[in-house]
Amino acid sequence: MSSVLVTGGTGCIGAVAVRDLLRGDVERVVIVTRSSDPGRLRLWMDEQGSGEQGRGELDPRIEFVAADVGDSAAVEALVQAQQPTHVVHLGALQSPDCARDPQLGMHINVGGTQALLEACERLAKPLERFVFASSAAVYGPRALYPGPVVRESDPLVPPNLYGVWKLAGEQLARLFHERTGVPTVCLRLNSTYGPGRDQGMTSAPTTAMKAIANGSVNGERVAFRMPYQGRENYHYVEDVGAHFARTALDPFSGFEAFNVRGETMEVSDFLREVERVAAGMGLGDFVDLGIADDASANLFVSDLDDTAIRERFPGVPKTALEDGIERSLRRFAELARGDS
């Protein structure tokens, strides 16, 4: 039986990953977090539970360990105490936080990753899998890539410090694999949307849907303007979480960094799709979406080629954008009404 240690397991993606891990052959999931607030976990346990648990109940196989991944001594102590068989490393400072405090961003996103990898090397039994949450921010501006899609083999020219540190994390993971032979996966994520996504610059698409759902419950139209424009990838959070669970537990050997992709389109087209789906749900009177006059350009590439991960991990889910938007709007309306 597997024992999976998950950093950032109470976050948006982490909560879904934990739920899906518990649906596998997992004895326990140890969540390493600075906050033991189970809000996002309950959000997904409410949806379908993790197995035999009742509505809103957390699976007893979940354990919380309060720790900061930037504290190397604490990381070493908890890894040795827990002796995990698998590690999923989602804990990190997001792009806006890294821009505000670069030193802290480097300390957490690079130093914390290295501390975790070093601790894993000293486990009593060799780790069976290490999965690292990387980012499409490891690539450069879209203009650098003339083809229709960006492949894993294309040049890596991060446009900001967050991307530099995610690329550093990938390289630290590669060196870890070369030293230990532990199967290691890096997932290059793009924009994630859906219930639980409430932090980071690219949480804006989710906030737009929340505005409609909240307005429908309160009986008022709530305006929302996107703070950036250009092309963007839209990947439903349940799909992203499932990628982490699958790459942690499914058969795999070696080291690989994989692109992960949902659906890609212009921000303006996404807003029109949200409007269309909302109207079909009877929420059209509460739509007031647009792009801010001072909207910046989206820095990150979005036209990622995800062929490699679909070949290595067949059957990873991909929710149609229309379905993901409808699920999100419905869930946000339920939450606004206090239904769960």
Keywords:
alpha/beta; NAD(P)-bd_dom_sf; KR_dom; dTDP-glucose 4,6-dehydratase activity; 340 residues; globular; Rossmann fold; 2 domains
Fourth-level CATH superfamily of the largest domain: NAD(P)-binding Rossmann-like Domain
The N- and C-terminal alpha carbons lie at a distance of 33 Å
Uncertain spans: 47-55
Number of strands: 12
**Element-by-element helix/strand order:** EHEHEHEHHEHEEHEEHEEHEHH
Q: What is the typical, i.e. mean, pLDDT?
A: 92
CATH architecture term of the largest domain: 3-Layer(aba) Sandwich
How much of the sequence lies in strands comes to: 15-25%
Compact description:
InterPro entries: Epimerase_deHydtase, KR_dom, NAD(P)-bd_dom_sf. This is dTDP-glucose 4,6-dehydratase. The protein is built from 11 helices and 12 strands.
SSE blueprint:
Elements: E1 2-7, H1 12-22, E2 26-33, H2 39-48, E3 62-66, H3 72-82, E4 86-89, H4 95-100, H5 102-121, E5 129-135, H6 161-180, E6 184-189, E7 192-193, H7 204-218, E8 224-229, E9 231-236, H8 237-249, E10 255-259, E11 263-266, H9 267-280, E12 289-297, H10 307-312, H11 321-337
Parallel strand pairs: 1-2, 1-4, 2-3, 4-5, 5-6, 6-10, 7-9, 8-12
Antiparallel strand pairs: 9-11
Describe the protein's architecture and organization.
Keywords: Lyase. The protein is α/β, with parallel strands linked by helices and 340 residues long. The chain folds into two domains: 2-193 and 234-264 and 299-319, NAD(P)-binding Rossmann-like Domain (Rossmann fold), CATH 3.40.50; 201-231 and 266-298 and 330-337. The chain has helices spanning 12-22, 39-48, 72-82, 95-100, 102-121, 161-180, 204-218, 237-249, 267-280, 307-312, 321-337, and strands at residues 2-7, 26-33, 62-66, 86-89, 129-135, 184-189, 192-193, 224-229, 231-236, 255-259, 263-266, 289-297. The protein has a seven-stranded parallel beta sheet, sandwiched between helices. Strand 5 (129-135), helix 6 and strand 6 (184-189) form a beta-alpha-beta unit. The protein is globular, with a radius of gyration of 20 Å. Residues 47-55 have low confidence and may be disordered.
